[in-house]
């Protein structure tokens, strides 16, 4: 079924049918209903690819995600889709499934370059107007998308001059979290950092250390332990920090999974949170709702990262951008009940 055939059946011009389909011009209510009835009865579907050849715009956006099972990805995709829907665009998703293939060995992504190239070829073949690439770990990724003559935005990752990017603040966020702990009277700290070689782990520790340096607080080397982002390693790290007489008054865990590990280690050692030890996390993930007292943590602006990625891409598509931009969005402190003021019985507010 073609537009010409629909027009003939409705007794109108092809242009009128196009106006009805795209809602681009005034058509009488009677004519609109007649055309819509025939479209419904015939099961007509517009040919997006053919239309894109005529208009040089398909209103399709390609979204490549490194792994959809990584929990932050769904929130980012939802943000992308919300803006796309509001602006009359559709998205096509391609999941690279890299988590099971490389886990945290991100330097091995080049081993799967053929998979990435294939995903790009499929999207370009479908005449997408632009591509958003969503990382599964915040890091620099260069030369992953090759020779694409389409606008590209990187989300939850960034490159050196290969497209705009949207990230969240790691260093400043942990700096502010540590300042909050210091303002509550804490002077003895333990820290459970993320994976060695991880850029977010390095940035978070940098912010933590900066806050201590500014306050003139010395961090004991034995109170710095790597937890690899995981619950089990977080628990083991906490035992190393807490299983001694002069343990610190606060532990900064660089994500919520490790913070929950601190909870369980403290419980096994007969310590109470926050009375004996204050604990903070990072992510505000689903796990925090299952522990008591509620963890003081950080919420990343995942939905907004999706919004801004789509907005940046549309600006580039429509030629209103000023070139590649790299945006770092602030995170929000979520105050729970896991931090206590020193020398006081009440939890901070």
UniProtKB/TrEMBL annotation:
The keyword Transcription applies. Signal peptide: none annotated. InterPro entries: HTH_LacI, LacI/GalR-like_sensor, Lambda_DNA-bd_dom_sf, Peripla_BP_I. CDD domains: HTH_LacI, PBP1_sucrose_transcription_regulator. Residues 1-55 form the HTH lacI-type domain. Keywords: DNA-binding, Transcription, Transcription regulation. One of its GO terms (molecular function) is DNA-binding transcription factor activity. It holds the Pfam family Peripla_BP_3. This is HTH lacI-type domain-containing protein.
């Amino acid at each position: 079924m073609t537009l010409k055939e629909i027009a003939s059946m409705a007794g109108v011009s092809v242009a009128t049918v196009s106006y009805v389909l795209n809602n681009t011009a005034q058509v009488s209510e009677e004519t609109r209903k007649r055309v819509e009835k025939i479209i419904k009865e015939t099961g007509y579907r517009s040919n997006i690819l053919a239309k894109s050849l005529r208009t040089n715009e398909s209103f399709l956006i390609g979204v490549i995600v490194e792994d959809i099972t990584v929990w932050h990805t769904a929130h980012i995709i939802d943000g992308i889709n919300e803006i796309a829907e509001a602006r009359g665009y559709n998205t096509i998703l391609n999941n690279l499934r890299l988590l099971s293939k490389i886990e945290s060995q991100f330097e091995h992504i080049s081993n799967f370059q053929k998979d990435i190239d294939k995903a790009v070829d499929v999207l370009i073949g479908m005449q997408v107007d632009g591509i958003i690439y969503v990382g599964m770990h915040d890091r620099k990724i260069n030369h992953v998308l090759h020779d694409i003559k389409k606008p590209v935005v990187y989300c939850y990752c960034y490159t050196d001059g290969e497209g705009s990017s949207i990230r969240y603040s790691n260093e400043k966020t942990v700096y502010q979290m540590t300042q909050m702990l210091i303002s509550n009277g804490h002077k003895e700290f333990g820290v459970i950092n993320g994976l060695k070689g991880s850029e977010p782990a390095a940035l978070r520790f940098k912010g933590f250390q900066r806050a201590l340096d500014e306050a003139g607080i010395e961090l004991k080397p034995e109170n710095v332990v790597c937890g690899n982002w995981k619950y089990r390693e977080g628990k083991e790290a906490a035992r190393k920090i807490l299983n001694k007489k002069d343990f610190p008054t606060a532990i900064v865990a660089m994500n919520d999974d490790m913070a929950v590990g601190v909870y369980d280690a403290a419980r096994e050692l007969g310590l109470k949170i926050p009375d004996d030890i204050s604990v903070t996390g990072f992510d505000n993930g689903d796990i925090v709702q299952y522990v008591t007292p509620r963890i003081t943590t950080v919420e990343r602006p995942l939905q907004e990262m999706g919004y801004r990625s789509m907005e940046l891409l549309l600006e580039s598509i429509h030629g209103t951008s000023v070139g590649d931009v790299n945006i770092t969005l602030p995170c929000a402190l979520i105050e729970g009940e896991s931090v206590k003021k020193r020398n006081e019985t009440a939890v901070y507010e």
